[in-house]
Amino acid sequence: MNRLCLLIAVLGFIASPASATDSCATAPAAQTSATGKHESPLACDRLALSSAERKRHFDELGPMLILLKTGVHELANGYELDFPSDAKTFALVAEWVEQERRCCPFFDIDVHLNREGGPLSLRLTGREGTKQFIEADGKDWIRK
């Protein structure tokens, strides 16, 4: 069942983000790295968000932020996205990040405000496989 949930999560996001893992009771099992450290699976646990939060996160915040995105930078282990640094965009990014860290705890998420009113940068990185997850699951986010 865990592999099925992972497949539903990955394929479901592409086809229908609002219901991708609603049929899975739990996320795929966590893993332990070679160093013995707990690592969440490279899959989104949509059940970490309430139904209303999922709708807000995937149907409202995500599409709004994709439209507001002003730049994309490929990194060795992920991507960095640029946004305007106005207060409204900052609030949207902060809300999205708080939800994203719960459903995708494997991400290292950095929000950076550049000096002199420069862009707000959102960096999504992580361990091996994270960049490939973003490329498979977040094509609209990284499209230039």
Write up what this structure looks like.
The chain is globular and about 40 Å long. It has one domain (2-142). The strands form two sheets. The protein has a four-stranded antiparallel β-sheet, with helices on one face. The chain has a two-stranded antiparallel ribbon with strand order 1-2. It is built from five helices and six strands. The termini are far apart. Mean pLDDT is 82; it is low at 1-29. Strand 3 (71-75) and strand 4 (78-83) form a beta hairpin. It has helices at 2-15, 51-68, 87-103, 130-137, 139-142; strands at 31-32, 38-39, 71-75, 78-83, 108-113, 120-125. Helix 2 crosses helix 3. With 144 residues, the protein is of the alpha+beta class.
Going by helix content, strand content and strand pairing, the class is: alpha+beta
Query: Could you tell me the mean pLDDT?
Result: 82
From the N-terminal CA to the C-terminal CA, the straight-line distance is: 36 Å
How many helical elements?
5
Share of residues in strands = 15-25%
Number of domains: 1
The sequence of SSEs as H and E is HEEHEEHEEHH
Rounded to the nearest angstrom, the radius of gyration is 15 Å
- Based on Cα principal axes, name the global outline: globular
How many beta strands in the DSSP annotation? 6
Low-confidence stretches: 1-29
What level of helicity do the residues show? 40-55%
Summarize the main sheet.
4 strands, antiparallel
Strand order of the largest sheet: 3-4-6-5
